[in-house]
């Protein structure tokens, strides 16, 4: 059987830019037994579905309904999936700030990548003991770091499309280069991350609250 070609938007934004990040999601699935994920602000980044059987995508971009409504997306994911069952892919075309209609405490993993303050808006959908993977591009990792509902469990390094999960020496992360009191208000005002002495590409938190 010939391999189905990638959906054009996914190819343009993720394959052609060598930014699929499959290995990030693979490592989380393998090392932490992740079987379900919620991805607010996903745009068309369907790579979590290659390694996680049940993924719900949320994005307000106007291209979303057409993209996810195309059966070619399911076919393409089928051709790349690394697990046995049929992929469950759903999407909500809306703001993740509004109620997305998913039951609370229903996902193993919440994904926050370059799309605002997802940790606060969507943590209710994450299981207790579930994981949040966040980068600090928009300040969301810093926000999770000061949220008592989350504890830092790993830092994730990236080399191209290879990712490694570090669970030791976590004290060296989140040390600001310049003295600053990090508050939710400051982070929301800035809308971008803080300069840290040892930055990581993403951070992994466990929901404890
Ligand atoms: C820079 S893209 C990041 C896409 C993807 N997460 C990645 O890592 O490549 C930001 C995406 O977040 C979406 N977004 C931003 N704020 C949102 C909100 N409040 N609700 C839903 N989607 C949002 C935008 O529509 C856009 O598709």
Summary tags:
8 strands, alpha/beta, 209 residues, 8 helices, single chain, eight-stranded mixed beta sheet
Describe the structure.
By secondary structure, the protein is an alpha/beta fold. It has a single domain, classed as 3-Layer(aba) Sandwich (Rossmann fold), CATH 3.40.50.150. It has eight helices and eight strands. Strand 4 (107-112), helix 6 and strand 5 form a beta-alpha-beta unit. The termini are far apart. The mean pLDDT is 97. The site of S-adenosylmethionine has 15 residues, from loops.
| SS field, number of helical segments | 8
Q: Biggest sheet, strands in spatial order?
A: 3-2-1-4-5-8-6-7
List low-confidence stretches. Answer: none
Identify the CATH class: Alpha Beta
Main sheet: strands, sense, barrel: 8 strands, mixed
The CATH superfamily is identified as Vaccinia Virus protein VP39
The CATH architecture would be 3-Layer(aba) Sandwich
**Radius of gyration based on Cα positions:** 17 Å
- Listing every helix as H and every strand as E from the N terminus to the C terminus, the arrangement reads HHEHEHHEEHEHEEHE
> Beta fraction of the residues?
15-25%
Structural class: alpha/beta
Number of domains: 1
Report how far apart the termini are.
Answer: 48 Å
* Net shape: globular
> What helical percentage do the residues reach?
25-40%
Q: Total number of β-strand segments?
A: 8
């Amino acid at each position: 059987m010939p391999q189905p070609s990638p959906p054009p938007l996914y190819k343009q934004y993720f394959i052609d830019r060598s930014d699929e990040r499959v290995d990030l999601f693979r490592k989380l699935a393998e090392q932490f037994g992740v079987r379900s994920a919620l991805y607010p602000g996903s745009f068309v980044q369907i790579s979590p579905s290659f390694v996680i059987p049940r993924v719900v995508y949320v994005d307000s971009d106007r291209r979303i309904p057409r993209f996810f409504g195309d059966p070619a997306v399911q076919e393409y994911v089928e051709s790349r999936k690394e697990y046995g069952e049929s992929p469950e892919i759903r999407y909500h075309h809306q703001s993740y700030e509004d109620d997305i209609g998913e039951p609370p405490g229903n996902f193993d993993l919440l994904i926050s990548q370059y799309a605002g303050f997802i940790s606060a808006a969507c943590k209710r959908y994450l299981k207790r003991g579930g994981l949040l993977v966040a980068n600090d591009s928009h300040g969301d990792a810093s926000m999770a770091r000061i949220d008592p509902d989350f504890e830092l469990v790993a830092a994730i390094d990236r080399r191209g499309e290879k990712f490694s999960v570090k669970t030791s020496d976590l004290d060296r992360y989140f040390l600001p280069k310049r003295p600053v009191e990090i508050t939710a208000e400051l982070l929301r005002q800035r809308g971008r991350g803080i300069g840290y002495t040892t930055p990581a590409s993403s951070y992994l938190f466990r929901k404890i609250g």
